[in-house]
Target: Glycogen operon protein
Amino acid sequence: MEFGCVNGLKKGWCKLKPTDMKKIANKKLVDQSQESSVKVFPGEPYPLGATWDGKGVNFALYSENATGVELCLFDSPEAITEHIKIQIKEVSHHVWHAYVPGLKPGQLYGYRVHGPYEPTVGLRFNPHKLLIDPYAKSISGTVQWHDALFGYNIGDPEEDLSFSELDSAPYIPKSVVVDHLFDWEGVTAPEIPYHDTVIYELHVKGFSCLHPDVPEAIRGTYAGLAHPASIAYLKKLGINAVELMPVHHFISDRHLRERGLSNYWGYNSIGFFAPDVRYSSSGTHGEQVKEFKNMVKELHKAGIEVILDVVYNHTGEGNQLGPTLSFRGIDNMAYYRLMDGRYYMDYTGTGNTLNARLPSVLRLIMDSLRYWITEMHVDGFRFDLASTLARELHEVDRLSAFFDIIHQDPVISQVKLIAEPWDIGFDGYQVGKFPIGWAEWNGRYRDCMRDYWRGADSMLAEFAERFTGSSDLYKGEDRFPTASINFITAHDGFTLNDLVSYNEKRNDENGEENRDGESHNRSWNCGEEGPTENEEVIALRDKQKRNFLTTLFLSQGVPMLVAGDEWGRSQDGNNNAYCQDNEISWLNWDKVDEKLLAFTQKLITFCKAHPTFRRKHWFRGMPIKGIGLEDIAWFLPNGEEMPDENWNHDYAKSLGIFLNGKGIRHMDPKGKPIYDDSFYIIFNAHYEPVEYTLPPEKYGSEWRKVIDTADACVSDDGQVLNPGDSFSVDSRSVVVFRHALEEQKI
Model:
C-alpha cells in the first residue's frame, strides 16, 4: 500500500483495520546491536531505570504486555534519530534488561516498545514513538509539540483508533544516564518535629526569578533558591521548611503552548525521578541532579527542610487523545485505570489516573519516594489529590495497599507525609480520614477562618475546633493537632492580598473566559473591588491581612504560609494562575509591603518562641494538677467564662481565649516538662469596637499587650493591665496579652 502525504499525515492509514495495525506494530525486530561494535550483556532486572556502575550502564524497563523492546542511544540532544538501536532480549518477570559496557553518565537514551495496537482493549504499543524511561533520573529537555508525538494520526476520523507511523524521536526529550555520586559534606537533615515546623509554599522559578540580589544567571533555578540571598531571606522570615511546588519533570500542555501560555505550576508529571530541567542553571545532561542536591544541602545547612509537592495521581499523557510519551507506549494497561478498554478513568480532571492498585505502579511510586529521600535527601512530601491514590475500585479506602506499603516502609514512613485529602471523584473529600502518620491540608480550617474574618455566620464551636487543632477531625487513633496543616491561602486560589481585595475572580488572562478557577472563594473586598486609592479601604485590607496571619500562627497545628503573602503579593485577582509563567505569578521583590513583612517576621518569631502555640498534644479542658486552672478556657467580653449554651447557637464574632502556659503537657528532648507564659487572646470580627474586661486574678496577676493587629504591633513593650481592667478592642482585630511565666507559680 502506498501513502500520499498531506500536512505531514499519511493518507490511507485510516482504511486499515485494527488487525492490520497489530501486524504492522508487531513486525519483526531488527537486532541492530549486531551491526555495530557495541557489546551487550544480559544485565539485571533490578534496579529499574539506567544504572551506571563505573564500567557501564544497566538498563531495566517494566512492560508486562510488550512483545519487544529496543534501547535507543543518541549522540546529542539535537539528533533526530538514534545512532545505535539495541534489541533487548532478556526478560525477567516482565522486566526487559540489558547491560552495555563502556557507557558513561550523560548518555542519552530512550525506548521503542513493540506490541499490539488495539486501543479498544487498552493496548497502545507503537514502536514509531520514542519513549521516556519512567525511571529516568534526568531528562534532557522539554517536549517540542508535533503531531508525531501522538500514537494516532491527528485529524483522522477514527481518532485514536488510527495508527501513526511518524517518528517522534526528534520532538521528545531524551532520558539521561546520571552519576549518583555527590559530596554532601556531612550535612544532615534538620529533622524538625511537626509541632515546631513552619511551612513556606513556593515555586522554584517564581521565588527568585525577579530577585535583585540573586545573580541573573541563576534566577528562577535550584541554584537561585540555594543562593545566600534567598536563604538569608527565608531565615529572617522565620520559616524552617519549604514546600516546593512540583519539581518532577512535567509536561506543558500543547493547547497552552499554542495559546502562548504554559503549565507553570507543573502538576502534569512525566518523570517521577527527574528534577525538572527548566529549573536548572547548570546543564541538561544530569547537571540538574547535582544542582538540586546542592540546593537541598544548602537549605539543610540553614536548618530548612525541603518538602516536595508530588503528583502521583496522573501523568501528562492525558486521555485517549493525548500524546504517547512514556507510560502509554510502554504498557498502557499496566499503568493506567482504564474504562471499557479504550478510555481512561479520570479522578483528577486531567484526563487519566494512574492505577495505584497495580503492583507495578505501587512499586514505581514507592521507588520514586525512596529515591528522593535516600539520594536527593528531601524531608517529606505533599501528595496532590491524595484521595485518588487511596481508591481501590472506586471508593476511597483508608486501608488501601498504598497506605499499607507506606506505613510499613522503614524509609518513607519516617519523613513528613502530607495529603491533599480530596480529588474530584465521588466521595473524594476525605479531610480528617487519612491514617496515622499522615498530616493533611485542612480545607475546613481555611474555610472557617475565611468565613470568620469576612463576617459570615461562623458558629463558635466550629471556630474553636479549628483554632485548637481540629480535634473533631484528627483526635483519636494516635493522631495529634499536628495532623492539621493550617492554611488561609495556597497556590490554588487567591493570594492573601487578593483575598481581601476581590469578591470575584479575574481569570481572563487564562484564555477560558473566566470560567476556570473556584467561584466561591469566601473572600471580601472590604468595600471596593480590586485596586483602590480609598485610604479607609486600604487600612482595613491591611488589618485583615494581619488578622489572617495572626490567626494562622496562633492556631494549634502546623502553619503553612504561601510565598509572598507575608508582604502582600497580588495576582490581580487571578485565582487560578496555573498557566501564567510571568509577572502575574512571579514574586515581584520591588513591590514588597515592608510594614506587613516586618509584622509577619515578628509574628513568626514570637510564635516560635512560645511553645504555648506549638503544642504536640491536645487541649484537655481539665484543671491541671496542683494549679486548679484548665489548660484552655473561653470567655465572654465581660470577663466571665463562657457557659455551655453559647457553643451551639452563638456566632463567633467576638471571644476571649485563655491559654495556660503551665498546661502544655509535653517534655523537652531531655525529659523535662515544658512550661511557657500564659496568654489571653481576643478575637473581634465585629464591625464595631467591643469593650472587654480581663478575667479574674486566678488567671493572671498582670497582663501585657504583645500583639495588636489594629496598630500592627508585635512587641513586649505594650500596655500593662490588671485583672478586671476594661479596655476597647478595635473592630476586626486581634489582641494578645501575655502573663509572664516568672510571675506564675509552678
User: Anything to note?
Assistant: The mean pLDDT is 91. Residues 700 and 744 are 8 Å apart (CA to CA). DSSP finds 17 helices and 33 strands in the chain.
